[in-house]
Write a sequence for this structure.
């Protein structure tokens, strides 16, 4: 995969970066620089992964860093400090590849000349639900509808079931032609581009399908500590072969102070407006039909007595709840 780097240009920096990367990987895995411990494959693989992620980050930020002009001097502490914060706050795809911004810009550029009449004809033809949420990319409803049309015509969807089509995340891999480690990542699906067919039972419900957030993509402090270990190995490389470079010096206190402000953990929440609408609807229904509900319960109780049917208090409460629901 290192050959991809050489296709960027014929600048000498790319050969230098490849040589540094190989030595960096070797140093991180050799017993000599790991307390004479012979590392197992379960330890070696994640270390290589982290180094490749950092190399990809350098490549994808090559213009901002002026990598071809500055050479390896672009590998400075400020860059890696901000990268670690981004990994913790934005998750790996956005920190390393600026993934969501790249996808959003590509999508907006691809749909700018699409006629909305073609979109409407497409929606009527495939009979899809009129369900569009702004999602992670914060697109407008019109932009999402145009995007679905564009992706469908580009064969970017995979058949996940008979009632929906999800966008294949591999469709975007060609937007990162020089990345050495992109293929080893698993990217989450952009649910705003999912097509739901109208013949599914969801179309019969009172409310449209509600988007939920299944988990956040923030990385734990433990993950950042492991990246710090990789940067320590980079400093060993600098000592051995690149002593004209400054060592990577990360202010640990400042770094963790920034990261600790970020809420970690998994969560699964409905949007607030859906929850409050549900409470309001439940209250209004009960308020408007409380007399009918009361009369129904009295009739049930009287009929049970007439029929000499014994029913427990628990069962009666269950029946009451069933009527209300």
């Amino acid at each position: 995969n290192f050959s991809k780097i050489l296709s960027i240009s014929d600048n000498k920096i790319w050969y230098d970066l490849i040589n540094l990367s190989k030595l960096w990987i070797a140093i991180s895995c050799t017993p000599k620089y790991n307390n004479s411990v012979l590392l197992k494959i379960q330890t070696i693989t994640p270390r290589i992964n982290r180094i490749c992620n950092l190399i990809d980050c350098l490549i994808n930020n090559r213009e901002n860093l002026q990598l071809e002009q500055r050479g390896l001097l672009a590998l400075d502490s400020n860059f890696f400090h901000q990268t670690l914060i981004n990994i913790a706050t934005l998750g790996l795809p956005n920190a390393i590849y600026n993934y969501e911004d790249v996808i959003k810009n590509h999508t907006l550029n691809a749909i700018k000349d699409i006629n909305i009449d073609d979109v409407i004809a497409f929606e009527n033809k495939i009979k899809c639900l009129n369900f569009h949420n702004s999602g992670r990319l914060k697109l407008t409803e019109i932009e999402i509808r145009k995007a679905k049309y564009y992706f469908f015509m580009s064969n970017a969807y995979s058949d996940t079931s008979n009632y929906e089509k999800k966008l294949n995340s591999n469709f975007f891999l060609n937007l990162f032609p020089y990345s050495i480690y992109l293929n080893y990542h698993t990217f989450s699906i952009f649910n705003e581009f999912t097509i739901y067919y109208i013949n599914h039972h969801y179309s019969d419900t009172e409310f449209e399908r509600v988007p939920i957030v299944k988990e956040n993509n923030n990385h734990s402090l433990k993950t950042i500590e492991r990246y710090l270990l990789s940067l320590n190995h980079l400093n060993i490389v600098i000592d051995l072969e690149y002593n004209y470079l400054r060592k990577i010096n990360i202010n640990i206190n400042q770094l963790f102070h920034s990261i600790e402000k970020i809420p970690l953990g998994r969560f699964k929440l409905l949007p607030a407006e859906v929850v409050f609408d549900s409470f309001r609807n439940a209250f209004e229904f009960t308020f408007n039909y409380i007399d009918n509900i009361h009369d129904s319960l009295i009739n049930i109780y009287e009929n049970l007595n007439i029929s000499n049917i014994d029913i427990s208090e628990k069962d009666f409460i269950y029946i009451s709840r069933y009527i209300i629901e």
Observations:
- Residues 272-306 form the longest helix (35 residues).
- The first strand starts at residue 157 and ends at 159.
